[in-house]
Design brief:
The protein is of the alpha/beta class. Helices cover 37% and strands 21% of the residues. The protein contains 16 helices and 18 strands. Helix 2 packs parallel to helix 3, helix 5 crosses helix 16 and helix 9 crosses helix 11. The two termini are 49 Å apart. The mean pLDDT is 95.
Length: 493
């Protein structure tokens, strides 16, 4: 995953209100730093404890010189409201605020810090200045608790840094009848993402220019080793290797001032016949390296995948919220074995873009639907190239960050699992189970007009994703609400 997601370099600045003994904050900061190191968290402690605005500038300079790209502001005592919040304005990176709990019942006169109170004024002042910051769910604790909160900040910081340094590269317009994946780009600029939109012809010209590239042979060998017995069409690998090199070279030469790149590419109907294959397997390989390639020019799908990649520091995928689980299949393989109703289950599917490492077993196959349309259902040639297989069971988070037509951002997050149930179908596909999915489907996905694509992170990442979306200023963050908790448009009768 190295190279296309950020490395977090954490700094910590302690603050102190000048009517408190400065050593309270300083000593508590040192204790938090020690607890962080016990957890394997390396962070630079700014030697200056901030009491005024000049101290704030000095401490920021210290962490910048130390190479820090993310910051913890630690309220060791009540803290100075103006200087401590200006830190978030002048530091160019994600900022977390956390406060010290009182330590001992026999030290509540000279040793009391009142940071519990100070955090209220801190958040009030951040709001007055319209400054974004990460504040944990319960942001006050002793040194071990603060260290644990800092550990939860790291994936959030990694993602914010990534988004602010991201370029989304697209090829082609959305396919006809896929307007649900609308992509107003203003909302991308609002959160600091750049975009470069290109024609499919640009990609085709670049692909042809890579014919005979000396690197193709090495990529073919890599592919064959990865696929093993799933290498069902060895003759296809050189075409796909040429395409992989084309995308990687384009990313390198077009990222410009940005550090990180993702793609959103048009993959049908013209692509397979003109390029000679389906791009799915190549897309899966790039996703496994932290460079998601969203299908069907789904720009916000690509952004969502990148966010999931940064949060989990591991490969993700993009799937259609695709089809119901047949009742007979539910009755025979799910009911009584798992605590899910039929409406809690569905199948997540895409043609074959899920990384090989996320499949129970994968093989190169052909796109059945495109074969019917483009090759009249005959022996497949250029409709080959999908990576197909059942997605491995385990915990997942289904989510999406999306722009409405009016360019306002909204998001959803729901945690669940992929069940160890054979799908009996084609593509990269899995049987998903999410508590209260039926209600979520109706009142969030349909009610809030989301498209059919969702990003899938492997593991439960809802807490970090919620923090990321909040930091980015997303006001509407939906989730699969439990029974008894009605959606705003849900009938109570």
């Amino acid at each position: 995953m190295a190279g296309n997601i950020p490395e977090v370099k954490l700094g910590m600045i302690a603050v102190s209100r000048d009517c408190f003994v400065i050593s309270i904050s300083e000593n508590r900061r040192k204790a938090v730093g020690e607890e962080c190191r016990k957890l394997g968290i390396e962070l630079f402690e700014a030697p200056t404890v901030v009491e005024n605005e000049n101290d704030a500038l000095k401490a920021i300079d210290e962490v910048k010189k130390a190479g820090c790209n993310s910051l913890v502001v630690f309220l060791g005592n009540f803290g100075p409201e103006t200087p401590e919040t200006l830190i978030a304005r002048y530091f160019d990176g994600p900022v977390m605020y956390v406060a010290a709990a009182e330590e001992r019942g026999d030290n509540l006169i000279n040793g009391r810090g009142d940071a519990y109170c100070g955090m209220l004024n801190c958040s009030y002042n951040l709001g007055l200045r319209k400054l974004a910051a990460y504040i944990p769910e319960y942001p006050v604790g002793d040194a071990p608790a603060c260290a644990r909160m800092i550990s939860e900040f790291i994936p959030v910081a990694r993602t914010i840094i990534g988004v602010r340094n991201l370029k989304i590269i697209t090829f082609g317009p959305r396919p006809q009848d896929f307007f649900a994946c609308n992509a107003p780009i203003k909302a991308l600029y609002d959160i600091g993402v750049e975009i470069e939109e290109n024609s499919e012809l640009d990609l085709l010209v670049s692909y042809r220019d890579h014919a005979g590239d000396k690197r193709i042979e090495g990529i073919v060998k890599e592919m064959a080793e990865e696929l093993g017995t799933g290498d069902t069409y060895p003759d296809l690998l050189p075409r796909m290797a040429q395409f992989e090199i084309t995308l990687l070279d384009w990313a390198e030469t077009h990222k410009g001032a940005r550090k990180y790149v993702v793609f959103a590419d048009k993959c049908w109907p013209a692509f397979p016949e003109e390029f000679g294959f389906e791009p799915c397997y190549v897309n899966s390989r790039l996703a496994s390296r932290g460079i998601p390639v969203a299908c069907e020019v789904d720009i916000y799908g690509a952004l969502s995948e990148f966010i999931g990649t940064c949060v989990t520091a591991s490969p993700v995928t993009l799937l259609d919220i695709n089809n119901t689980v047949p009742r007979d299949m539910y009755e025979s393989e799910i009911k009584g074995k798992y605590s899910y109703a039929l409406e809690d289950t569905f199948m997540g599917f895409h043609c074959g873009n899920t990384p090989f490492c996320r499949l129970s077993g994968g093989a190169i196959k052909y796109q059945l639907i495109q074969n019917r349309i483009l090759e009249n259902g005959g022996t497949p040639d250029f409709t080959r190239g999908t990576l197909e297989g059942d997605i491995a069971p385990g915990e997942i988070t289904f989510f999406r960050l999306h722009s409405n037509a009016d360019t306002s951002l909204q998001a959803y997050i729901c945690q669940g699992e992929i069940l160890p149930v054979k799908t009996r179908s084609f593509g990269g596909i899995g049987v998903f189970a999410i508590p209260e999915m039926g209600r979520f489907y109706r009142h969030v996905l349909i009610g809030k007009r989301y498209p059919h694509h969702g990003a899938v992170a492997f593991g439960h990442a809802g807490r970090a994703l919620h923090a990321v979306f909040t930091y980015l200023g997303v006001k509407d963050i939906a989730f699969n609400q439990p029974k008894g908790m009605l959606y705003s448009d849900e009938c109570p009768f």
